[in-house]
Amino acid sequence: MLTHIKQVANHVGESVRLGAWLYNKRSSGKIQFLQLRDGTGYIQGVLLKKNVSPEVWEQATTLTQESSLYVDGTIRADDRAPSGYEMDVTGIEVIQEAEEYPISLKEHGVEFLMDKRHLWIRSRRQAAILRIRSVIISAIQDWLNGQGFTLVDPPVLTPSSCEGTTNLFHTKYFDEDAYLTQSGQLYMEAAAMALGRVYSFGPTFRAEKSKTRRHLIEFWMIEPEMAFVEHEESLQIQESMLSHVVNHVLKSCKTELEILERDTSKLEKVTGSLPRITYDEAVELLNREGMEFTWGDDFGAPHETKIAESFDQPVFITHYPTQIKAFYMKPDPTRPEVALCADLIAPEGYGEIIGGSQRIDDPKLMAERFNEHELSQEDYAWYLDLRKYGTVPHSGFGLGLERTVAWICGLDHVRETIPFPRMLNRLYP
RNA sequence: UCCUCAGUAGCUCAAUGGUAGAGCGCCCGGCUGUUAACCGGUAGGUUGCAGGUUCGAGUCCUGCCUGAGGAGCCA
Q1: How many distinct structural domains can be found in chain A?
Q2: In what residue span(s) does the Aminoacyl-transfer RNA synthetases class-II family profile domain sit (predicted)?
Q3: Given CB 3.0 to 4.6 Å as the disulfide criterion, which of A30, A67, A151, A384 pairs with A49?
Q4: Nearest nucleotide by C1' from A185 CA?
Q5: How far is the CA of A198 from the C1' of B40 (A)?
Q6: Residues A221 and A353 occupy one common structural domain
Q7: pLDDT at A166
């Protein structure tokens, strides 16, 4: 039986066996320190020359970085250890003496590390990020499941564009053309009419030539869709979901956030309701701040950053002009030139992490929108059916997982939030 | 697609137009509490590619390739 490093506190004074990799080694003539990791944690193995057999001592001196080992030894509490525990090593069984490991403990450049991404994820920092990503995913799913949402998986291969705006990855579906999904939303609307409150969690593909710290070609979205939920209630659901996620990560990922040196005081401010600003107010704010901006234009990244800087939490920008938003968004009945929609902009320049809206439920208006946007009513007959057979008010939103992870972790690029990022110029490994 | 910046040892980087160097890593030696340990030594180079200017180019010029982060687009 192997003991996990995470559990060593329960084995003080006991002789245990670890399965581990050697991530670093220091030696000083008659004492050797083995830095061990096993995926659950880190511990230092100590060998004193006078206390171990010559064979074990000799074995330890030849070990290379990232060699795989079974290590036997006794667990001891020690104030000098960062984790509070050390292991007095009594035996080492080498599974494999690793070849010269390319990633040293010194600095490396982005291109080098991305080429070695399959090894880079072994590093303490990258492993911490991936662990937080996992916790964020399960926090979202736990919260949604607890609120009566049903997980529904929309297709990845689709016959045509869902929104018709962005570039899709084209492929063949036998003799037909097919595209990788850029959003499951339209299918989720169908699912909401069947199951009430639903959400999807899956990959999304955008063949955009975007090349910034906020963009991936393949990224993961959570897309809830809710029947009988109108704009205001949707916003409340979004803010309580997000604050649940942030609080859960703060509670259960203390070690990981420390490794990342995240300033958690900024996250602790996310406690419930989030600030809101209408598009109109945002335009005023920009003009007041000296940025020229005309009502009716869409915000660019610098505008979003400027707006977000005025708040210390994520902020909803609501009621965008109907003209610049997606065809399915419901116009505000009291003011049809703006839509019942909201983007949630994260602080610290992380950009939009949620985009959502109430959807058009009126079949006539939806038909008009199809004409305006020159969408094929034939191709989308199934979607228009949803407005013919018992249409109801409904709302939904999409949360970009990687931007959310980047913000919570305080990273300067989304490429570190996903195990194997797909980016412009990056399909390997 | 556009703008800006970069490419020199395995890695991170130096080098007025004038003999290509350092730190780390590898290898060898030393050190009884190291925390990216430290100290000494060895090896390691088609300066991204192709042209051009020059007595002489890592350095200047032209083209190309690769990468970076920003714009647009978006989550």
Answers
A1: 2
A2: 130-429
A3: A30
A4: B75
A5: 67
A6: yes
A7: 57
Give the closest residue to B23 (Cα–C1′). Answer: A106
Residue type, A62: T
Among A9-18, A164-173, A267-276, A407-416, name the one with the lowest average pLDDT: A164-173
- Closest nucleotide (C1' vs CA) to A81 is B35
Task: Tell me what percent of the residues of chain A surpass a pLDDT of 70.
Answer: 99
- Whether residue A161 has pLDDT greater than 80: no
Q: What is the mean pLDDT of residues A311-330?
A: 94
Find the Å distance, CA of residue A111 to C1' of nucleotide B48: 14
Domain that holds residue A14: 5-96
CA of A171 to C1' of B54 (A): 54
Q: Nearest nucleotide by C1' from A114 CA?
A: B67
Residue with tokens 């084209």: A170
Q: Which two tokens mark A295?
A: 């009502």
For residue A418, is pLDDT > 90? yes
Same domain for A131 and A83? no
DSSP A358-369: EBP--HHHHHHH
List the CATH number of the domain containing A271: 3.30.930.10
What was the pLDDT predicted at A82?
87
CA of residue A122 to C1' of nucleotide B74, angstroms: 31
| Domain match, A137 and A89 both | no
pLDDT score of A325:
92
User: Are A250 and A362 contained in the same domain?
Assistant: yes
CATH classification of the domain holding A72: 2.40.50.140
Q: Nearest nt to A354, CA vs C1'?
A: B75
- Assigned domain for A104 exists: no
Q: Which CA distances in Å does A230 have to A29, A316, A385?
A: 71, 16, 20
A217 and A364 in a single domain? The answer is: yes
**Mean predicted lDDT score pLDDT of chain A:** 92
